[in-house]
Predict the structure of LacI family transcriptional regulator.
Amino acid sequence: MAKRATIGDVAATAGVSTATVSRVLNGGTVAAATAARVWDAVARLEYTPNALTKSIFAGHSSTIGVVIDDLSSPFYLDLIRGIDEVAAANDSLVMFASTFRQADREVAQVRAMDEQRVRGLIVTTGEATDGRTRRMAEGGTPCVIIARTVEDPPSGMHSISLDNLQAGRLAAAHLVECGRSSVGVLISQNRSSQSRPSQTERTAGLRHGLAERGLPLPEGAVATATTESDVGDAIDSLLAHVRDSGKPLDAIVCMTGRLTVAAHSALAARGITIPDDIAFLTMDEFAWAATLGITVIAQPSYLMGRRAAELVVERPTTPVQLVFEATLLARTSCGEQHTGLR
């Protein structure tokens, strides 16, 4: 196996010092003839600069670190695309890591990004990583928290989130317009039995929106699931609660796109027809939503990803907190809309 060429090999071939080679590779001022000899040696030897060594001298790499919860959620696909496009346009690569919603992995992945001296960090992790990201921001590495806000952020620490209360109100308004009055909610929780703040806020918005129209959302009408395999039991608990209350369930709102397929499948497995028996509304647009006629509350995840990467590149010192609005994509899964209701 041929040995990888080193900067010393390039210097010897070009007849210059390694310092001169370094200056040429990093765009420093060097005589044109000397630079030409260096680039000729680089080409002949097929020399590839050591990115790790460059990052050590620069104090950071050109890589943007991205740590996300779970690749199974449709929210992340466009988010990643937005991040990657901005990174590519600014001579950066993107290093992705998924934590599978495990707090210990979140901490480990963020620590690894810090150790790699990434150009900036974008995370959708929980509060367990806030201590490390705060220190990174204070040390000069721009950090962007996505899907939630952070209290008293230091310089260089930013957040991008959805107006979750508005998203919940959108769901309430649409369901009532479709003639629905007995709503159940499905939310996800992590392995520590903690619900996501974003989903809690969406549920609060839904509750407020229903209350404004004279409809309740009892605590027992909210069920949780940790994994897709738990969704069937959660659906059963919703059906049982509402049955015991004497008012048949006529709508289910899934507050996370990650559980959409499992919830839809669980209803079908129980012989429940959408929308004739129960209306179904979920978060986050996905490829088959229109084909299946599923109404969704869409997040502008592509724009959120782009803006997050732009904050890394632009490096504003004053903390930026951006809140995006959700959009209702009405299809057939909630039934026909009616005018003049409430």
